[in-house]
Amino acid sequence: MHARPAAATGLDAVRAVADAVLYEGYLLYPYRRSSGKNKVRWQFGVLLPPEWARAQGLVDTSVAGSAESWWQQTECLLEGPKDARIEVRIRFLQLQRRHPQERLPDGRYRTVEELEAGSRLEVGFDEAVPQEFEVRATVAELLGGARHVVLRAPGGQESEPLTGEDGREIGRVVRRRRPVTASVTLSITDCRAAPSLRRLRVRVENAGKAASPQASREVALRNSLIACHALLSVRDGSFLSLLDPPQWAAQEARACVNVHTFPVLAGEEGRRDLMLSSPILLADYPQVAPESPGDLHDAAEIDELLSLRTLTLTDEEKREARATDPRAAAIIDRIETMPPQAMARLHGAIRSLRPATEENERWWEPGADARISPDTDSVLVGGVAVAKGSRVRLRPRPHGTDPQDRFLDGRTALVEAVLQDVDGTRHLAVTLEDDPAAELNRWHGRYRYFTPDEVQPL
Questions:
Q1: Which stretches does DSSP call E strand in 194-345?
Q2: What domains can you pick out in the chain, each with its CATH number?
Q3: Is the dihedral of CA 17, 21, 22, 27 positive or negative?
Q4: Three-state secondary-structure class, residue 169
Q5: Cα dihedral 388/393/395/396 (nearest 10)
Q6: pLDDT digits (tens, 9 = 90+) for 142-152
Q7: Is the previous residue joined to 30 through a cis bond, with omega within 30 degrees of 0?
C-alpha cells in the first residue's frame, strides 16, 4: 500500500459532487470580505490539530460534520474477494493567507489591508488550496493488519508583483501557508453475515501541531484539514448502501460507526463500486443539478436567487468581491456574462408530469377542501388511529428519505397535525419529545415530517 498524488481514475466520476462538498460554505454571498458572514468560515469537515482540539474540549463523536474535532472515521460494507483492490482518495482544503504589500521608496515592503494597482484592488483574506492524496490496498493486505499512511501538504510562500498603470511595481501580493500533516489508517474486518462481506474503516487524523493550545481558532485553522472528505472505490468488489442495505446485511450496516462523516453510494445510479464519505449528510447517488451553471460556494445555495442577488451588487461591491478571492471574481464574471437562456433554466425544472385536475389545481387554497382538517384528521397506522396529540416512535424509511431523518430512528415524537400534499399523500407533522426546543418549534410551526409507514403508534 502506498500514498501518492492522485491520478485520474474512476473516482473522477463523482468529482463534481465532491467539489461541491469541498467548497461548501467556502465563501458566502455577497462574497465580500466586509460581509459579516464571511468573517467566520470553514464550517464543515474541519480537522484541527489534536493538541488544540483537546484543549478546547472538542470530544464530540456524532456523525455531524459541522462538529469540529481532530479526527473523522468512515465505516462501510463491501463485498469482494481477497484480491479486490481498494482505492481511497483523501481530499481537503489547506488554508492560505493572502497579504497585499506596498513597496516603499527604499525597496522594502510593508503589509497593508488593501492596495490599489490601477483598476485592480487587492485585499488581505484567507484563501484555500485544494489537496488530494490517494491510498491503495488490497483486501488481503488489510486483513493482514491495519495500515497507516502519513500525508503531508507542505507549507510555502509565493509572491505576485503588482504594477501601476505606468508599469512600475507598486507592491506585491504574498501568499503564505503552513504545512498540514494527516495520518490515514485503513483496516478491514470480516462480517458474519456472509463470507465475502467486509467492514472497511478509514480513519483520518490531523497529525500536525498547533502554534499553541491556547491559540485562537483562526490561528489553529492554519494547520488544519478543512472540508475533509474521502472518495472510495473498489475493483472486483462492490459496496453496500448504509441507508438502504439488503435485509441480510441490515444488522451489519447498523453496526458501522461513522464519526463526523457519512458514506453514500456515488456515481451513476445503480453503481456500487464508488462511495463518497462526506461531512455534509447526503443521500445515495447525489448529483449536481444539470441546470446549475457553476459553483456558488454558498451553503444551501439556490442558483437563481443567488445569481439575481449578485447582479444587484453595486459596481463598488463587485470590485470588493473580486478583490476578496479569485473564486469570488469568477462567480461575478460568470453571472454577469450568463446568457438569458441559462438564467431561464435556473427558474425551475420539471422532473415529472401528471394530469391536472380541479382538485389538485385548488389544493393550496385555504379552506378549499372542507374534507381536509390537519387539527382533527386521523390516519390508520397498523390498525390504530393516529391524530394530533398521538405519540409515535419514528421509523424512517432506509431509502428515498432525507438522510438526516435516518438518525432519528427509534426516537419518540408527538403528532402535531395530519397533512395531505398535492398528490393526496398523508404526512405527519411531529415534534421530538426529547427536543428542548420542541415548544419553540411548535410555536413557530416548525415540524419534522414523516409518512404514516414511518411511525409506530405508542
A1: 197-206, 226-235, 238-240, 262-265, 274-278
A2: 2-316+323-333 (no CATH), 372-457 (2.30.30.140)
A3: positive
A4: strand
A5: 40
A6: 999 999 999 99
A7: yes
Measured CA to CA in angstroms, residue 58 lies from 49, 62, 406, 423 at distances of 11, 11, 25, 45
The pTM assigned to this predicted structure is 0.78
Q: In what helix (H) or strand (E) does residue 160 lie, and over which residues does it extend?
A: strand 156-163
**Cα(322)–Cα(327) distance, integer angstroms:** 8
> Starting at the edge strand that comes first in sequence, how are the strands of the sheet with 180-190 ordered?
147-153, 180-190, 197-206, 71-79, 238-240
Look at residue 39 and give its three-state secondary structure: coil
| Burial class of residue 109 in the structure, from the number of CB atoms within 10 Å of its CB (0-12 exposed, 13-18 middle, 19+ buried) | middle
Q: What is the CA angle 276-189-410, rounded to 5?
A: 65
Cβ of 239: how many Cβ atoms within 10 Å? 23
**For position 165, what pLDDT does the model report?**
87
Cβ neighbourhood burial of 278 (10 Å; 0-12, 13-18, 19+): buried
Please give the pLDDT value at position 8: 42
List the grid coordinates of 328.
Answer: 469570488
CA distance 178 to 405: 39
Chain mean position to CA 304: 20
Tell me the residue type at 305.
Answer: L
Sign of CA dihedral 142, 148, 149, 152: positive
35-93 residue pLDDT tens: 988 888 898 999 999 999 999 999 999 999 989 999 999 999 999 999 999 999 999 99
From residue 367, alpha-carbon distances to 359, 363, 372 in Å are 12, 9, 8
